């Protein structure tokens, strides 16, 4: 956090919620937005508190206030429907509006898939997927009514490519990517734009598995400017998936290959592999939503 007063101007009347804002990436996002003059609801459950009973969110709020910013703490669990609603109500009661949401709360709890327990899977899905759904839904209702809003859902490249020994985490993050693309399509006509950030950062959750050659490079703070640009009130991106780490970024997408035909009879595995190779090496197609993908395939085959 810089020691100068928060910026004003186009950011000055903005109000944001950052879930998981007490540590790691969420903390970096909350501090960066506050530096820009955004008033921030910093959400983080109190898994641990100091001798004065203050949890991670309280410490981030104190840091923001010490730098001249405005913030308030919220200690609810994102997977609790009541907490999601109260988060939005807190923003409205404090400042009368809500224009930005960053859903950064998440857990991993790695297990090999064949050893994964139902309870572990359920917990990861509850926090990472349901927790994102509940807060984003509550925020989207307010934003749609106002005709403007920016939602950033924090996911992971594990949700695109999978991650060994982290099947629950990968499944949950893949769900968040699909969720964000759906919310983006639904919100576009109401001025509510939703994007996805896939960050690489050394945090409490990733430190153990991070390649130590790059641990210092991948500071959480370095991802914050990308997150800020994605929730900027003038931003027009919608439905984008952005990979970011250090001072680099990549555009990511889900694509289908070229349409190829088969005989309609039984397929030999080798023939199937060759057809898929032909499709993969042909023209690539991306779509705004699933029905567009169906219409494209149907048109090719009609």
Question: What's the quick description here?
Answer:
By secondary structure, the chain is α/β, with parallel strands linked by helices. The chain has helices at 24-35, 56-66, 81-95, 118-146, 158-161, 167-187, 224-230, 269-281, 290-301; strands at 15-19, 39-43, 71-74, 100-103, 149-154, 192-200, 241-245, 248-252.
Please explain how this structure is put together.
The structure is a single chain. This protein has an eight-stranded mixed sheet, with helices on both faces. Helix 1 packs parallel to helix 2. It is built from nine helices and eight strands. It has two domains: 244 residues, NAD(P)-binding Rossmann-like Domain (Rossmann fold), CATH 3.40.50; 48 residues, no CATH class. The longest helix has 29 residues. Helix content is 41%, strand content 14%. With 302 residues, it is an alpha/beta fold.
Keywords:
302 residues; alpha/beta; Rossmann fold; 2 domains; eight-stranded mixed beta sheet; 8 strands; disordered N terminus
């Amino acid at each position: 956090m810089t020691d100068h007063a928060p910026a004003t101007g186009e950011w000055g009347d903005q109000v944001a919620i950052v879930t998981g804002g007490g540590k790691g990436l969420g903390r970096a996002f909350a501090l960066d937005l506050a530096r820009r003059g955004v008033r921030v609801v910093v959400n983080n459950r109190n898994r641990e508190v100091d001798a004065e009973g203050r949890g991670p969110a309280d410490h981030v709020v104190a840091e923001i206030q010490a730098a001249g910013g405005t913030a308030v703490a919220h200690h609810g669990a994102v997977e609790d429907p009541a907490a999601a609603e109260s988060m939005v109500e807190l923003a409205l009661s404090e400042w009368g509006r809500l224009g930005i949401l960053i859903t950064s709360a998440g857990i991993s709890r790695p297990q090999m898939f064949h050893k994964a327990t139902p309870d572990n899977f359920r917990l990861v899905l509850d926090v990472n997927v349901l927790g994102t759904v509940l807060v984003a839904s509550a925020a989207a209702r307010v934003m749609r009514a106002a005709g403007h809003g920016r939602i950033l859902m924090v996911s992971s490249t594990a949700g695109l490519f999978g991650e060994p020994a982290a099947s629950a985490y990968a499944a949950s993050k893949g769900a968040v990517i699909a969720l964000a693309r759906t919310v983006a399509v639904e919100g576009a006509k109401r001025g509510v734009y939703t994007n996805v950030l896939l960050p690489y950062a050394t945090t409490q959750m990733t430190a153990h598995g991070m390649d130590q050659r790059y641990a210092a490079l991948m500071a959480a703070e370095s991802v914050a400017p990308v997150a800020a640009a994605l929730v900027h009130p003038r931003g027009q991106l919608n439905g984008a998936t952005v990979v970011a780490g250090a001072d680099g970024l990549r555009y990511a997408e889900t694509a289908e290959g070229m349409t190829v035909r088969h005989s309609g009879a039984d397929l030999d595995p080798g023939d199937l592999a060759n057809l898929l190779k032909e499709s993969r090496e042909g023209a690539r197609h991306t779509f705004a939503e699933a029905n567009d993908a169906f219409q494209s395939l149907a048109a090719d085959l009609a």
